[in-house]
Design brief:
583 residues; alpha/beta; Nitrilase/N-carbamoyl-D-aminoacid amidohydrolase; six-stranded mixed β-sheet
Length: 583
């Protein structure tokens, strides 16, 4: 009897040790995935690590018979660790964005346990059978990437595919399957590696044959397609070698401060405007007069807005300004805008601000970022816009940003954030339709700032313009990334823009205040890029590329299919989730 009691006490003592070991293994797996995935992106940039970084989360989804409430919170915390570290550059703009950084990161962290939930449900009883983990994991991951690209206006940056932009051969399938297709193959491969490791540990390698074969086929297909499309692009470029480029576009980059750094006088913004003139003038003298000069978002006019000429009469009074005083103010603004256009056109011909007008063979068009104000009888509406100015100095077109940035251009959550909204009244109205501006025979479709981080918006714009008979030849992104102080947010932004080029098979030019400005071809290859936080200019000479693709035609059917399957799996009748999973 004494011997049995000793054995019983020994077994009872071993149980807590076994549980501690399991908990330690669980924590190492999920937080290891978070750290590895963070290291896959800039500033560390170990891109290939992204292929196996989610392995810990997949391992937990496959092997854990029971995930406790504490375990689910730990999964969320691992997601929070990844997003807080990856997006820390957001907080650098001004102090309210510390709140935005925390709120966004903690919200995005929800998708980590959600990924595990959906993957576990898909590997349960679903549609009369079970999906193996090497299929359940990519379906679940892509569904989560799709959801976060839409919910709360969407945040699609730092998807798994964005870690691979340094390898153009890998991302070519994005023209057919979107960034989601690249992510699908990567997660399928990662899940196959997990299956292989588990099978090897159990001495049952044969069980990993199908996952390994599926991953091999997908990777081979991805790389073969990539080689083909890059070869096709090279042949197309060779065929165009005797033809001029679509246009010569001068992408000007300086270091205009944000509105929160410039002070109430706006003197710093005016000085930055003159630096942009100088940089433009020097670049034109170096490269010659281009067809188009592009200035980044909100850099034109020295902080003064362009007020649309269609105004009510009389001008509505404001609490601090009478109608007559506002009319006088508007006359000054109109005069300043005309002078700004005049000086910018002179700089675009390589001329000094003062002195005789030099006879020039041509005068370029301007595409400049500025604030536009529309005065209505009820209110003054501010837009973040790109103005297209012809060589005669006339505003020939206007694109209003269609996708506002949370905490940067509006505050969400209604009355909850009213104090911040009162302190920083930065609400921006949004535009309703895309635009394509003609420079000679070339159509240029602008977007502004983080819009290039919303792939569904850009692909929709391309489709809408094509339906209007104005299919763009070049996509132009005007951005002001001075908010992020040269942090890795600039790299994340550029990565999204690179995949935008591939998805839509259009060359993309980027003019970014403080950088990173770039010329990207329709295969996602960065032909030129600037250094961050420097004054410089890039002469971009994009070549035609309008190869068709599924994304241009219909959007993202693979992602929506994964989303639909995952949604059905989460319905009460869609799958029998293990009762051992206690939330």
């Amino acid at each position: 009897m004494a011997s049995k009691r000793r054995k019983s006490r020994k077994a009872e003592g071993a149980a807590p040790d076994k549980q501690k070991s399991a908990d330690r293994r669980f924590a190492i797996a999920i937080f290891g995935s978070a750290i590895a995935l963070w290291a896959s992106f800039p500033p560390v940039g170990l891109s290939l690590l992204a292929w196996i970084a989610p392995a810990g989360w997949i391992y937990v989804a496959k092997t854990e018979a029971k995930i406790t409430r504490r375990g689910w919170w730990a999964l969320w915390a691992s997601g929070a660790l990844f997003w807080l570290a990856t997006l820390q550059g957001i907080r650098l703009a001004y102090w309210p964005l510390h709140f935005g950084w925390l709120a966004l990161s903690l919200f995005l962290a929800i998708y980590t346990p959600l990924f595990v939930v959906i993957a576990r449900r898909l590997t349960g009883q679903f549609a009369g059978g079970k999906l193996p983990m090497y299929l359940a994991a990519p379906v679940s991951w892509v569904a989560c990437e799709l959801a976060r690209a839409w919910i709360l206006t969407g945040f699609a940056a730092c998807g798994l595919a964005h870690s691979q932009v340094a390898f153009p051969v890998v991302i070519q399938i994005a023209d057919q399957l979107g960034t989601y297709g690249v992510s699908f193959v990567m997660i399928l491969t990662c899940a196959a590696v997990v299956e292989l490791c588990l099978a090897a540990r159990a001495g049952k390698l044969r069980q990993a044959f199908v996952p390994a074969a599926a991953a091999s086929v997908c990777i081979t297909g991805m790389l073969a397609y990539g080689v083909w499309k890059l070869s096709e692009a090279d042949q197309m470029l060779l065929a165009q070698s005797d033809d001029p480029p679509l246009l010569d576009a001068l992408l000007v980059q300086e270091n205009t401060p944000t509105v929160f750094d410039s002070g109430r006088s706006g003197k710093d913004l005016q000085e930055a405007y003159f630096r942009y003139l100088d940089t433009t003038r020097q670049a034109v003298r170096k490269h010659g007069i281009p067809d188009l000069v592009v200035w980044p978002e909100s850099t034109f006019g020295g902080g003064l807005p362009y007020v649309l000429p269609d105004r009510p009469s009389p001008i509505p009074a404001l609490p601090a300004r009478s109608s007559e005083e506002r009319q006088a103010d508007l006359q000054i603004l109109d005069s300043n805008f005309k002078a700004g256009v005049f000086y910018t056109l002179r700089a675009a011909r390589g001329e000094e601000m003062q002195g005789p007008i030099v006879e020039s063979p041509k005068t370029p068009h301007l595409l400049v970022g500025t604030t536009v104000v529309r005065i209505t009888p009820d209110e003054d509406q501010k837009y973040n816009s790109a103005l297209f100015i012809n060589p005669r100095g006339e505003v020939a077109g206007q694109y209003d940003k269609m996708h506002a940035v949370m905490f940067g251009e509006y505050f969400p959550l209604g009355v909850l954030l009213k104090p911040l909204r009162d302190m920083y009244p930065i609400t921006i109205f949004t535009g309703s339709e895309p635009q394509a501006f003609e420079v000679g025979e070339t159509r240029v479709a602008p977007n502004i700032c983080f819009e290039s981080m919303v792939p569904r918006l850009i692909s929709r714009q391309v489709r809408e313009l094509a339906a209007r008979g104005a299919s763009p030849d070049v996509i132009a992104n005007l951005s002001n990334d001075s908010w992020f102080r040269g942090s890795s947010m600039l790299d994340h932004h550029l990565a999204c823009t690179i995949l935008t080029a591939v998805e839509n098979r259009r060359p993309v030019i980027v003019a970014a205040n403080t950088g990173i400005s770039a010329q990207i071809d329709g295969s996602g290859r960065v032909l030129q890029r600037s250094k961050r936080k420097t004054a410089t200019a890039i002469l971009a000479q994009p070549r035609a590329d309008s190869r068709p693709g599924l994304v241009q035609a219909v959007g993202y059917p693979l992602a929506w299919l994964c989303g639909l399957v995952s949604f059905i799996a989460c319905l009460p009748f869609g799958s029998r989730f293990s009762q051992a999973d206690a939330m």
